[in-house]
Design a protein that fits this description.
The complex is a heterodimer.
Chain A lengths: L2 E12 L2 E7 L9 E6 L3 E9 L4 E7 L3 H7 L6 E8 L9 E7 L3 H13 L3 E8 L8 H6 L3 E6 L6 E2 L3 H10 L4 E5 L2 H13 L4 E4 L15 E2 L2 E2 H4 L2 E3 H4 L8 E3 L5 E3 L1
Parallel strand pairs in A: 7-8, 7-11, 8-9, 9-10, 11-12
Antiparallel strand pairs in A: 1-2, 1-6, 2-5, 3-4, 3-6, 4-5, 12-15, 13-14, 16-17
Helix pairs in contact in A: 4-5
Chain B lengths: L5 E3 L2 E3 L3 E3 L8 H9 L4 E3 L16 E4 L3 E4 L12 H9 L4 E5 L4 H12 L5 E5 L10 H4 L2 H12 L6 E4 L7 H10 L4 E4 L3 E3 L2 E2 L4 E2 L6 E4 L4 H14 L4 E4 L5 H10 L3 E4 L1 H6 L3 H16 L4 H4 L13
Parallel strand pairs in B: 3-4, 3-16, 4-7, 7-8, 8-9, 9-10, 10-15, 15-16
Antiparallel strand pairs in B: 1-2, 5-6, 6-14, 11-14, 12-13
Classes of the chains: A alpha/beta, B alpha/beta.
Amino acid sequence: MREVVPVVERVQETPSTVTLRFDFAPVAAPGQFVMLWIPGDDELPMSLSYTDGPRKGVTVKAMGDTSRRVLGLGAGTRIGVRGPYGRAFDLSPRRLLVVAGGSGAAVLAPAAAEARQRGASVTVALGATTAPELLFAERFRAMGAEVVEATDDGSAGTRGFVTGPTARLLGERPFDAVWTCGPEVMMLKVVEAARSRGVPTFCSVERHMKCALGMCDACALGPFHVCTDGPVFEAGRLLGETEFGRFHRDPSGRRLPG
Amino acid sequence: MGDLTVRIAGVELRNPFILASGIWGESGVSLAGAWKAGAGAVVTKSIGSVPRPGYPNPTIETYERWGMLNAMGLPNPGIDEYPREIAAAREAGATVIGSVFGGDAQEFATLAERIAGTGVAAVELNLSCPHAEGYGTEVGGTPEAVAEIVRAVVARVSVPVIAKITPNSADPAALAVAAERAGARAVSAINTLRALAIDVTLRRPVLAHGLGGLSGAAIKPVGLACVWQIAARVSIPVIGIGGVRTAEDALEYLMAGASAVQLGTAVAFDGIEVFGRLSAGLSNLLDREGIPSAGAAVGLARGSAGASAR
């Protein structure tokens, strides 16, 4: 189950984002996550940004204290890995709109790559605070996806949130599905825009996690557990009676807005 | 079809399979989900006086065949926040047992009174968490301490009080006897066994807290022995806990003297559907064995030739 392996490669993707590559043989599908243990520190759920073959990878943005420390890990550092866990993206849609905010591209890139290999057309709406923070823009282009950029400061692509170009693209051409990962308020807006056009949306959702086995309830999201029922959800399941876009729980289980 | 209805301390349960504390218990919607999946009752996460994040990860280590180790560290949102979760579970019709943990008898009594006020069917006292400094086994590890806490709680609540006792003691049955004498209407046994896992390449414990508690198949024989010994010495119902994953496991506990069982680790390995599966399985098993009801199975192994009651 849990394997302790060395980091074999560290790639600085953007000023605030780092990819760690390591050898972990279990077969994984795009959208799944692993529990990544930094011995002596913490263990965090991380979606795989590289799923193909034994050399897996995670791409981490400096957010909390621990993810900041993950950024400091160099090649040779031993980490614990267990998984993969959770539900993957359905790779059958032929015309895909991929909407990534911030580090959301980490989980979407391997899914888009797999869809491209299967012959799907992929358009990526990629958002970040500023041009150097756009994650995996070249990786998406190299796989043959069209990339439309948006930055908060206008240093690349459209100025403003990625939801702007997303709505425009949905109005311009037909898509079979939208895949999205990013801040929950962003995903909620993407879901609403796609629903108004009748396009199903699949969201990769994040919650605080402990066991990753569907037992401890730390990642409860309405009637679901993100670790076993997600992290990829068809958006229709998340709307309505549930908590998506409204609140999450801290490690004690208290409800916090947002 | 064998009748699965059982009674614990005057509370009727539609079947003897209870969701154990700490499993699917952070959110009321999850408790409702366990109820809808067929649990006979659901026990809340153990609730304390203030919000508590629990220990850092790793909080869990699994062993495919025989169970898991955990040191969650009693994470809970606190008694001010939690009643709304209980309300959500009760709205779904669930029979809810409220679990609380305190650092002394007065804190237990205050928490029990507050959680009883939410309309729970019973209160379970966590006298047995093996890895939380100042709580659990550390305050409920002796008959005297159990008696003091149970007595303080019973004086403050009208619903039945269930004492969940530790196996990490020389004489767990003595704890159960103390609980009964102090007014407990049932005892749950066992909590996890104190345990440790080490990663040899890193030369350190796997769990962030170091020590944890072992659950699952590995502890079933220990749980059975505790229930066996407890049932010999108390007349209140015993709720068996430890490694129940199949209908046969549950029937073993009933025959040893338990009136119901709780499930935890099985949910991690088999999903929440385990509740529906075990009810159907026990019903069939009772038929096969010619036992008319779950209640009729309680203690059936106790009169057998050569069996030592203690």
